[in-house]
Amino acid sequence: MRLILIGVEYAGKTTLANAMHDWGLSVGKKFHMDDGDFTIPDYHHLSPEDQETMWNMSPVLKERFQRMVLYYHLEILERYDDCVFGGFHIEEKIYGPRYYHPDSEVTYHRWLEHKMPSNCILVNMVCEPDVVRQRMKDDPHPYQLVQPEEVEELQEEFLHEYNHSYFRRKLEFDTTNLTPETILDTFLDRVRPVLTARDLVFLDSVRTPGSPV
User: Fold this and answer.
1) All structural domains of the chain
2) pTM of this prediction?
3) CB pairs under 8 A, 24+ apart, for 88-94?
Protein backbone atom coordinates (compact mmCIF):
# COMPACT_ATOMS: atom_id res chain seq x y z
CA MET A 1 0.00 0.00 0.00
CA ARG A 2 1.59 3.24 -1.13
CA LEU A 3 -0.20 6.21 0.44
CA ILE A 4 0.41 9.91 -0.19
CA LEU A 5 -1.50 11.92 2.41
CA ILE A 6 -2.11 15.57 1.59
CA GLY A 7 -4.08 18.35 3.22
CA VAL A 8 -3.71 21.44 5.33
CA GLU A 9 -1.85 21.24 8.64
CA TYR A 10 -3.99 19.70 11.38
CA ALA A 11 -6.17 17.77 8.92
CA GLY A 12 -4.89 14.58 10.53
CA LYS A 13 -2.03 13.41 8.29
CA THR A 14 0.39 12.65 11.13
CA THR A 15 -2.33 11.01 13.21
CA LEU A 16 -3.26 8.68 10.36
CA ALA A 17 0.36 8.01 9.41
CA ASN A 18 1.23 7.03 12.99
CA ALA A 19 -1.85 4.83 13.21
CA MET A 20 -0.94 3.09 9.94
CA HIS A 21 2.60 2.52 11.21
CA ASP A 22 1.46 1.00 14.51
CA TRP A 23 -1.22 -1.12 12.83
CA GLY A 24 1.25 -2.34 10.22
CA LEU A 25 3.67 -3.54 12.88
CA SER A 26 0.85 -5.32 14.70
CA VAL A 27 -0.10 -7.33 11.58
CA GLY A 28 3.38 -7.97 10.23
CA LYS A 29 3.60 -5.14 7.69
CA LYS A 30 6.34 -2.52 7.98
CA PHE A 31 5.54 0.78 6.26
CA HIS A 32 8.33 3.08 5.10
CA MET A 33 7.31 6.28 6.85
CA ASP A 34 8.13 9.80 5.65
CA ASP A 35 5.74 12.17 7.35
CA GLY A 36 7.86 15.18 8.25
CA ASP A 37 10.54 14.97 5.58
CA PHE A 38 8.74 17.39 3.26
CA THR A 39 8.15 20.14 5.83
CA ILE A 40 10.69 22.78 6.89
CA PRO A 41 11.94 22.17 9.49
CA ASP A 42 11.52 18.42 9.86
CA TYR A 43 10.82 18.48 13.59
CA HIS A 44 10.05 14.74 13.69
CA HIS A 45 13.62 13.63 12.99
CA LEU A 46 15.94 16.57 13.69
CA SER A 47 17.43 17.87 16.92
CA PRO A 48 16.27 21.31 18.09
CA GLU A 49 19.59 22.77 16.93
CA ASP A 50 19.25 21.28 13.46
CA GLN A 51 15.64 22.41 13.24
CA GLU A 52 16.73 25.97 13.92
CA THR A 53 19.48 25.74 11.30
CA MET A 54 17.03 24.40 8.72
CA TRP A 55 14.44 27.07 9.55
CA ASN A 56 17.02 29.81 9.00
CA MET A 57 18.31 28.61 5.63
CA SER A 58 18.01 31.06 2.75
CA PRO A 59 15.07 30.68 0.33
CA VAL A 60 17.46 29.52 -2.40
CA LEU A 61 18.82 26.71 -0.24
CA LYS A 62 15.35 25.74 0.95
CA GLU A 63 14.10 25.39 -2.63
CA ARG A 64 17.11 23.32 -3.64
CA PHE A 65 16.84 21.13 -0.56
CA GLN A 66 13.13 20.49 -1.11
CA ARG A 67 13.63 19.59 -4.76
CA MET A 68 16.35 17.06 -3.95
CA VAL A 69 14.26 15.51 -1.16
CA LEU A 70 11.34 15.00 -3.55
CA TYR A 71 13.47 13.36 -6.23
CA TYR A 72 15.14 11.14 -3.64
CA HIS A 73 11.76 9.87 -2.49
CA LEU A 74 10.82 8.76 -5.99
CA GLU A 75 13.36 5.99 -5.49
CA ILE A 76 11.87 5.17 -2.10
CA LEU A 77 8.46 4.68 -3.72
CA GLU A 78 9.98 2.27 -6.22
CA ARG A 79 11.92 0.30 -3.63
CA TYR A 80 9.21 -0.18 -0.99
CA ASP A 81 5.81 -1.71 -1.63
CA ASP A 82 4.35 -0.16 1.51
CA CYS A 83 4.92 3.54 2.14
CA VAL A 84 3.16 6.40 3.87
CA PHE A 85 4.24 9.88 2.74
CA GLY A 86 2.76 12.96 4.39
CA GLY A 87 2.51 15.93 2.04
CA PHE A 88 5.16 14.99 -0.53
CA HIS A 89 5.16 16.84 -3.88
CA ILE A 90 1.76 18.50 -3.56
CA GLU A 91 2.59 20.02 -0.20
CA GLU A 92 5.77 21.46 -1.72
CA LYS A 93 3.76 22.83 -4.66
CA ILE A 94 1.52 24.74 -2.24
CA TYR A 95 3.73 25.48 0.76
CA GLY A 96 7.02 26.06 -1.06
CA PRO A 97 6.21 29.36 -2.81
CA ARG A 98 4.05 30.49 0.12
CA TYR A 99 6.40 29.83 3.03
CA TYR A 100 9.87 28.64 1.97
CA HIS A 101 10.98 30.21 -1.29
CA PRO A 102 8.51 32.91 -2.40
CA ASP A 103 10.48 33.79 -5.53
CA SER A 104 10.50 30.22 -6.90
CA GLU A 105 7.44 28.42 -8.23
CA VAL A 106 7.13 24.63 -8.24
CA THR A 107 6.45 23.56 -11.81
CA TYR A 108 7.64 19.93 -11.84
CA HIS A 109 5.11 18.29 -9.51
CA ARG A 110 3.00 16.78 -12.30
CA TRP A 111 6.09 15.39 -13.99
CA LEU A 112 6.96 13.64 -10.72
CA GLU A 113 3.59 11.91 -10.77
CA HIS A 114 4.45 10.28 -14.09
CA LYS A 115 7.45 8.69 -12.36
CA MET A 116 5.52 7.23 -9.43
CA PRO A 117 4.21 3.64 -9.27
CA SER A 118 0.69 3.32 -10.64
CA ASN A 119 -0.65 1.87 -7.39
CA CYS A 120 0.05 5.02 -5.36
CA ILE A 121 -3.06 6.29 -3.60
CA LEU A 122 -3.51 10.03 -3.19
CA VAL A 123 -5.53 10.83 -0.07
CA ASN A 124 -6.81 14.38 0.31
CA MET A 125 -7.48 14.78 4.00
CA VAL A 126 -10.09 17.44 4.73
CA CYS A 127 -11.61 18.84 7.89
CA GLU A 128 -14.06 21.59 8.79
CA PRO A 129 -12.04 24.85 9.03
CA ASP A 130 -13.24 25.67 12.53
CA VAL A 131 -12.16 22.22 13.71
CA VAL A 132 -8.74 22.77 12.13
CA ARG A 133 -8.43 26.09 13.95
CA GLN A 134 -9.39 24.47 17.23
CA ARG A 135 -6.75 21.79 16.72
CA MET A 136 -4.20 24.54 16.07
CA LYS A 137 -5.13 26.17 19.36
CA ASP A 138 -5.10 22.93 21.32
CA ASP A 139 -1.81 21.58 19.99
CA PRO A 140 0.41 24.29 18.44
CA HIS A 141 3.31 23.03 16.35
CA PRO A 142 6.87 24.10 17.23
CA TYR A 143 7.27 25.87 13.86
CA GLN A 144 3.81 26.95 12.82
CA LEU A 145 3.31 27.48 9.09
CA VAL A 146 -0.41 27.77 8.44
CA GLN A 147 -2.21 30.64 10.11
CA PRO A 148 -5.87 30.39 11.18
CA GLU A 149 -7.07 32.80 8.51
CA GLU A 150 -5.41 30.75 5.75
CA VAL A 151 -7.22 27.47 6.34
CA GLU A 152 -10.04 27.83 3.80
CA GLU A 153 -7.78 29.11 1.04
CA LEU A 154 -5.24 26.35 1.55
CA GLN A 155 -7.91 23.65 1.59
CA GLU A 156 -9.11 24.95 -1.76
CA GLU A 157 -5.56 24.75 -3.11
CA PHE A 158 -5.13 21.18 -1.94
CA LEU A 159 -8.49 20.27 -3.49
CA HIS A 160 -7.42 21.87 -6.78
CA GLU A 161 -4.18 19.86 -6.86
CA TYR A 162 -6.04 16.70 -5.87
CA ASN A 163 -8.57 17.15 -8.68
CA HIS A 164 -5.88 17.85 -11.27
CA SER A 165 -3.42 15.16 -10.23
CA TYR A 166 -2.61 12.27 -12.58
CA PHE A 167 -3.22 9.59 -9.97
CA ARG A 168 -5.85 7.03 -10.88
CA ARG A 169 -6.33 5.93 -7.28
CA LYS A 170 -7.62 8.81 -5.17
CA LEU A 171 -9.65 9.28 -2.02
CA GLU A 172 -11.06 12.26 -0.13
CA PHE A 173 -11.06 11.55 3.58
CA ASP A 174 -12.89 13.80 6.06
CA THR A 175 -11.48 13.73 9.59
CA THR A 176 -13.80 16.34 11.12
CA ASN A 177 -15.54 13.90 13.45
CA LEU A 178 -12.72 11.40 13.85
CA THR A 179 -10.38 10.90 16.77
CA PRO A 180 -6.97 9.22 17.06
CA GLU A 181 -8.88 6.14 18.26
CA THR A 182 -11.29 5.98 15.30
CA ILE A 183 -9.27 7.34 12.37
CA LEU A 184 -7.53 4.09 11.39
CA ASP A 185 -10.55 1.79 11.30
CA THR A 186 -12.55 4.41 9.39
CA PHE A 187 -9.75 4.88 6.88
CA LEU A 188 -9.23 1.16 6.27
CA ASP A 189 -12.93 0.86 5.44
CA ARG A 190 -12.97 3.93 3.20
CA VAL A 191 -9.80 3.09 1.26
CA ARG A 192 -10.96 -0.35 0.10
CA PRO A 193 -12.37 0.75 -3.31
CA VAL A 194 -8.99 2.11 -4.44
CA LEU A 195 -6.77 -0.68 -3.12
CA THR A 196 -4.98 -3.12 -5.39
CA ALA A 197 -5.90 -6.81 -5.32
CA ARG A 198 -2.68 -7.48 -3.39
CA ASP A 199 -3.59 -5.02 -0.67
CA LEU A 200 -7.20 -6.17 -0.47
CA VAL A 201 -6.13 -9.77 0.01
CA PHE A 202 -3.78 -8.73 2.80
CA LEU A 203 -6.34 -6.47 4.46
CA ASP A 204 -8.99 -9.18 4.39
CA SER A 205 -6.54 -11.66 5.85
CA VAL A 206 -6.04 -9.56 8.97
CA ARG A 207 -9.45 -7.98 9.46
CA THR A 208 -13.00 -7.83 8.12
CA PRO A 209 -14.70 -4.56 7.07
CA GLY A 210 -16.21 -2.79 10.04
CA SER A 211 -14.41 -4.89 12.61
CA PRO A 212 -12.07 -3.47 15.24
CA VAL A 213 -8.51 -3.19 14.04
Assistant:
1) 2-177 (3.40.50.300)
2) 0.92
3) 88/4, 88/6, 88/34, 88/38, 89/38, 89/113, 90/4, 90/6, 90/122, 90/158, 90/161, 90/162, 90/165, 91/6, 91/38, 91/39, 92/38, 92/66, 93/161, 94/154, 94/157, 94/158, 94/161
